[in-house]
Amino acid sequence: MLDEKDALQVKIDRARLQLPEDARAAIDAVDWRGAIMQIRNNEGYDFIQLAELETETELLLCGLANPEDYPRQIEKGMGISREATQKLVEEMNEKVFKKIKEEMIKIAESKKLSAEKAAPRPVTVTDKPANEELARAGIQITGVSANGNGNPRALESREEILERIEKPALPPASFEPHPLLAEKLSKPMQIPSSKTVHSLDNLTKPAVPAPPKAAPAAPKKYEVDPYRETPQ
Predict the structure, then answer these.
(1) CB under 8 Å to 124, separation ≥6 — which residues?
(2) What per-residue confidence (pLDDT) applies to 5?
(3) Interval 149-193: pLDDT, tens
(4) Cβ of 162: how many Cβ atoms within 10 Å?
(5) Is the distance from CB of 128 to CB of 55 less than 8 angstroms?
(6) Greatest CA separation for the chain
């Protein structure tokens, strides 16, 4: 049959197993028993007093004791004054309970970060065959686009995209002339004409007659008829 001390330890072990996994991990991450031994070196408590402090602390950590009763149980079990109890509780808060709380916060933040990394990303819907054709044409499609109303716009079919690539829509016929050309076209057309310069020198000079044309050469006359033979 178990004695009272062993029965209490069994009760503590069972309660500890019922703690959340994060709470157990935080408690195990802090050397709270080592902190109690350090108090003994500083304050000079004996081993019986430290054993009582360890038991009351473990009961509190496992949820078997009320935090409000912790100072009174320490004072009664260790047989120390109220002032010494108050000082001891403050030291335990600083070296044990505060550190366990910090470890629990670290564990919670680590789990949250891991959950964010493991969360599935939104799947981008793309038309792979169509994207390959567009990529060869120098056009990139990253996903489903939205129309002017903010609603998703359906992707074009392969045939529609190929037809648009092979027969691109021509821009509307519009011609905007260059500003200099537009300025010239807006002015009235002027026909170039020869300009006669009238000056005193031109009026007083006599007109120079044109040189006479050469007379046509007279036909050559023959003294003897070239077609008639001279008698011998």
Answers:
(1) 142, 143, 144
(2) 78
(3) 545 454 555 566 556 655 655 555 554 555 554 554 455 545 445
(4) 16
(5) no
(6) 191
